[in-house]
Amino acid sequence: MERRELSSSNDNSELAFLNEWLDSHIQDAQYGLRKPLLITEFGKSWKDSGFNTNQRDAIFNTVYYKVYSSAKRGGAAAGGLFWQLLTEGMDSYRDGYEIVLSQNPSTANVIARQCHKLFQIRKIYARIRNAEMWKRAHAIRREQWLARNKRKEPIGN
């Protein structure tokens, strides 16, 4: 995704653009390419004039909402990777887009909620996959049992 920064005077139209951009690319990946899509290197620089954490959180929420909405229905969006996660003491790597979880609690909360929601989806799909595997194994065992009974062989052989 090309970097497109939100200006404080134009937040609503920029979020609308982001929504449309994400919808378009997710649909292209789903129906055109038929490949998974990762939304990467998104964020909001604190170096922008008029920056506030609500703007950054709105961007994160928008991206994560689109990823989650696609993922929960088995769509193309597979995840989102913001730019960039740092820890305290990594000041030389700061570029304005960094997130230090201990210094950005509202954004850390947005990230944590998304991680939890995607984890829940993974668990649901794992259960579905396990149930399908169990059904296939059960059908195979039933066919083997029926075949043995046709030949009147003992089940233990």
Describe this structure in words.
The chain has 157 residues and is mainly α. The protein has a single domain, classed as Glycosidases (TIM Barrel, Alpha-Beta Barrel), CATH 3.20.20.80. It has three helices and four strands; from the N terminus they run H-E-H-E-E-E-H. The strands form two sheets. Strands 1-2 form a two-stranded parallel ribbon. Helix 2 (53-72) links the parallel strand 1 (37-42) and strand 2. GO terms for molecular function: mannan endo-1,4-beta-mannosidase activity. InterPro entries: GH, MAN-like. It comes from Lithospermum erythrorhizon (Purple gromwell).
Describe, in short, the structure shown.
This protein is mainly α and 157 residues long. Helix content is 57%, strand content 10%.
Order of helices and strands: HEHEEEH
Query: Gyration radius, to the nearest Å?
Result: 23 Å
Q: In whole angstroms, how far apart are the ends?
A: 60 Å
Widest sheet, order of strands: 1-2
Outline the low-pLDDT stretches. 1-9
Instruction: Please identify which CATH superfamily we are dealing with.
Output: Glycosidases
Structure summary, number of beta strands: 4
Kindly identify the CATH topology.
Answer: TIM Barrel
Strand content: 5-15%
Largest sheet, if any?
2 strands, parallel
Helix content: 55-70%
> How many helices does DSSP assign?
3
Report the average pLDDT across residues: 88
How many structural domains does the protein architecture include?
1
- CATH class placement: Alpha Beta
Structural class by sheet pairing and helices: mainly alpha
Shape: elongated
Instruction: Examine the secondary-structure arrangement and name the CATH architecture.
Output: Alpha-Beta Barrel
InterPro entries: GH, MAN-like
Protein name: Mannan endo-1,4-beta-mannosidase
GO molecular function: mannan endo-1,4-beta-mannosidase activity
Organism: Lithospermum erythrorhizon (Purple gromwell)
